[in-house]
Design brief:
By secondary structure, the chain is of the alpha/beta class. The protein has two domains: 142 residues, Rossmann fold, CATH 3.40.50.1220; 81 residues, SIR2/SIRT2 'Small Domain' (2-Layer Sandwich). 33% of the residues lie in helices and 18% in strands. It contains nine helices and nine strands. The protein has a six-stranded parallel beta sheet with strand order 3-2-1-7-8-9, sandwiched between helices. The protein has a three-stranded antiparallel beta sheet with strand order 5-4-6. The longest helix has 17 residues. It is globular and about 55 Å long. The structure holds adenosine-5-diphosphoribose and zinc ion.
Length: 233
Amino acid sequence: MDVAPRIVVLTGAGVSAESGLQTFRSADGLWYSHRITDVATPEGFARDPALVHRFYDQRRADALAAVPNAAHRALARLERDVDPGLAIVTQNVDDLHERAGSSHVIHLHGELNSALCTACGSRLRWTATLGDRPPCPECGSRTLRPDIVWFGEAVYHLDAIEAATRACETFAVVGTSGVVYPAAGLAALARAHGARTVLLNLEAQDGGFGYDEVRLGPASEVVPAWVDEQGEP
Ligand code: APR
Ligand code: ZN
């Protein structure tokens, strides 16, 4: 039964940092060791598919080996104990929210554990590599790509995400630098529809959006502490 969410939580790479997965724009971030144009654009994939597959095959393996941390687990508890309609809108492509027990996770930027066939359009659950150009189980072509939204491509599920954002009472933002749209505009959309906005992040965001509540620190600490207070009358 689809229950309208009272709480929507937008997450970014920072929520998975303490599970050992790299963020993008922190000091040792992925965008300091890889050029976005090479590994996160359709043009880069057309130019050198093997390089792009190596990049995502490694991230898929890293994500499979990672373990949900206390922040992921606290958000699953928030759904179980406080808001059964809780929607997690994640920019992340790992499945740590799902593995922590969250049941309504919307992947705005796609998922590592999904492959997209460029020949027949099938989306396939995929935890193996793609660099060895395996055949599509549906059509046999060897043109599977990571089911990841690259720069210049349309994000996934935006209508559902904006509907949940407009409807919620509380919009919490966890572990994101807030520089990539449309995700970065969701807190303002929530506020425009009367929601209370909360930032739970290691550091303040540059964007200057004035959250109603800001708690700075590692997600594994600030998220469980915030969740503990949500059930209180
Ligand atoms: N706990 C909480 N927040 C953290 C932690 C932590 N342990 N470690 C880092 N952070 C915060 C950083 O302060 C930063 O604000 O997480 C944020 C990470 O920002 P980015 O690296 O820019 O990641 P994200 O915001 O998710 O990037 C958005 O950009 O390149 C695209 O598609 C990619 O989905 C990604 C999008
Ligand atoms: Zn196919």
